[in-house]
Write a structure and sequence with these properties.
The complex is a heterodimer of chains A (256) and B (316). Chain A is an all-alpha fold and 256 residues long. Chain A contains nine helices and two strands, in the order ααααααααββα.
Chain lengths: 256, 316
């Protein structure tokens, strides 16, 4: 009987289990990083890179560390038998042959699930689901932690956390009624409602028309007076005769 | 009588049958019996230590009967001479011609029970050395091979040390096991009392289960038991530890202990019907294999540690 073939078979199963283990690990890591990145609204591409690197490094390490004793621990009926058969493969006597037969028979019943750690797998699946749920919620609600950045204290939050179910109040202490894009028509500042009437007749000013300003109104008050400027006759330059010479010299020097 | 022993399961059944038959005379002492049988399967010698009256001699005597082996008994006394064991040349007259003829001593048997070995002088004890290790005796210029299977089962008691000669290290190393016999449990002692006061039972009524050929085959099988490399390494590491722990052990075990421990593990596995040796086999056999091969230092003795305590500590 070629016991090596049976041992190789169970070793391959162990490697496959290791890959599955590492895949779940990398999924947990990738989902965890993705969840954080989603919360910050940053691209999740890096989580794929980290998850992939984790899978590769973890798998290489696990394969290097994997040994027959691991299988023996998971399948108690094989304890010491598998290693003994493996170490004595090629030797032949009645006892070894009998051992090889027993090992080959037991190895045939070792399944993928026997080599998996049930508790550990369940734990990792739980974390995958948990992080998946976080990502789902963040994407659905459009939650972004950057929106929730806090101001200098005097002015209060620059922007409260907004979005579905946020329930946050705005700076006036009122429930938030506008979303992150500000898509809300009624904006209240203080307690007073502002009406902005742009393009109304009263605000039309035709600067090219004579007397237009005289007839127009601004804010309900008439504006009277000509457009342009005149010299103010009230202005006079008067200075002392002592200073006259000094000033004359200054201008003469300036003209030079 | 068992003839066809081919598998480990056959060995287990045979051993169980031997124990059952010996149990007809000897009450309890199953561990002692198992270790003695393991010693026989390894083709090695064993030293039984225990207080007087614990059926050491009866156990060995009964075992040799069940195994259909030639049994001889030597009582260790201070005036016992080497020639009393090995035999000597005697002048014999045949057809008017006188010639020296070698008269074989009691050592020429399959099972030699050396009772109270520590009462014999070191010179006499040494006479056993060659026979125990080389399975031969040299008298004068002639070498006499022992008839296989051959093993010496010696007894000694730990008390009454006055007038005794503790075994030299070289000799105690030649015993594969030092087996400690314990006092029987209360219910066992009640059985002993009933059995030996109401009816007469002795080993003469026992029928042999196996013979020398079977033992020879069993000894071959023991050596065929495969061992994992991790187990071999574990054995070597354990024996190395006895040399490294200088805070407890003055002198550690020799490489002969490594060989003996692995062989004992194989025998134990086979006796339990297994085709492989486990770590538990080694741990269990390490006590009888190592306890007479280590010498504790003053610090260990000051702390009231005995050899078994130290070996258990090393295993942990």
């Amino acid at each position: 009987m070629d016991i090596r073939r049976h041992i190789s078979k169970v070793k391959r199963r162990l490697v496959l289990t290791k890959f599955f283990d590492c895949f779940l690990d990398s999924l947990v890591v990738g989902f965890a990083i993705s969840a954080v990145l989603f919360i910050f609204g940053v691209s999740v591409f890096i989580s794929f890179v980290v998850g992939g690197a984790y899978l590769f490094a973890g798998f290489v390490k696990a394969v290097k560390k994997s040994s027959l004793s691991e299988i023996e621990k998971k399948v108690p009926g094989l304890e010491w038998q598998l290693r003994t058969a493996s170490d004595n493969a090629g030797k032949e006597n009645e006892i070894i042959n009998k051992l090889n037969e027993e090992v080959a028979e037991k190895v045939g019943f070792v399944s993928f699930s026997d080599l998996l750690s049930g508790k550990r797998t369940l734990k990792r699946l739980f974390f995958v689901l948990l992080f998946g749920a976080v990502i789902f919620y963040v994407q659905l609600s459009g939650f972004n932690l950057i929106d929730a950045a806090v101001g200098d204290g005097e002015t209060g939050p620059v922007s409260k956390i907004t979005g579905l179910f946020s329930g946050e109040e705005d700076i006036n202490g009122k429930k938030n009624r506008f979303d992150i894009f500000g898509n809300e028509k009624d904006i209240e500042i203080g307690q007073r409602e502002l009406e902005l009437e742009l393009g109304s007749e009263m605000n039309e000013i035709d600067l090219g028309r004579e007397g237009a300003l005289g007839t127009g109104s601004s804010g309900g008050q008439n504006f009277r007076g000509p457009v342009g400027s005149e010299q103010d006759s009230s202005y006079s330059e008067s200075y002392d005769s002592d200073e006259e010479e000094i000033i004359e010299n200054f201008y003469n020097n300036l003209n030079k | 009588m068992q003839n066809e022993i081919r598998t480990a399961l056959d060995v287990k059944n045979t051993v169980d049958e031997i124990l059952e038959h010996v149990g007809f005379v000897v009450v309890g002492q199953e561990e002692v019996l198992r270790q003695t049988i393991a010693s026989v399967l390894c083709g090695s010698n064993a030293l039984l230590e225990g207080y007087p009256g614990l059926a050491k001699t009866l156990t060995i005597n009964t075992l040799s009967k069940v195994m259909d082996l030639k049994f001889s008994r030597i009582q260790g006394t201070p005036d016992l001479m080497p020639s009393d064991i090995t035999g000597t040349y005697v002048l014999e007259e045949k057809n008017g011609k006188r010639d020296f003829v070698f008269q074989k001593g009691p050592i020429f048997a399959n099972v030699v029970l050396m009772d109270e070995i520590n009462r014999a002088t070191p010179k006499t004890q040494s006479a056993l050395l060659e026979a125990m290790q080389e399975k031969q005796v040299t008298v004068g210029n002639q070498v006499f091979k022992m008839e296989p299977p051959f093993f010496v089962l010696a007894t000694q008691n730990p008390i009454e040390q006055e007038g005794t000669y503790p075994l030299p290290e070289a000799q105690s190393d030649r015993f594969l096991f030092k087996i400690k016999t314990q006092y029987p449990k209360s219910e066992e002692e009640m059985e002993i009392v009933n059995r030996f006061t109401e009816e007469e039972r002795n080993s003469d009524s026992l029928k042999p289960i196996i013979n020398a050929d079977t033992i020879h085959a069993l000894q071959r099988m023991v050596r065929q038991v495969p061992v994992a490399n991790d187990i071999k390494q574990y054995v070597v590491d354990l024996v190395h530890k006895t040399r490294k722990h200088k805070e407890l052990i003055e002198y550690g075990a020799s490489p002969r202990a490594s060989i003996g421990l692995l062989l004992a593990g194989k025998a134990k596995a086979l006796m339990e019907g297994r085709n492989y040796v486990s770590k538990e086999d080694i741990n269990e056999m390490s006590l009888p294999v190592l306890r007479h091969r280590i010498i504790l230092n003053f610090e260990a003795e000051r702390n009231n540690f005995n050899e078994d305590d130290v070996i258990k500590y090393l295993i942990k």
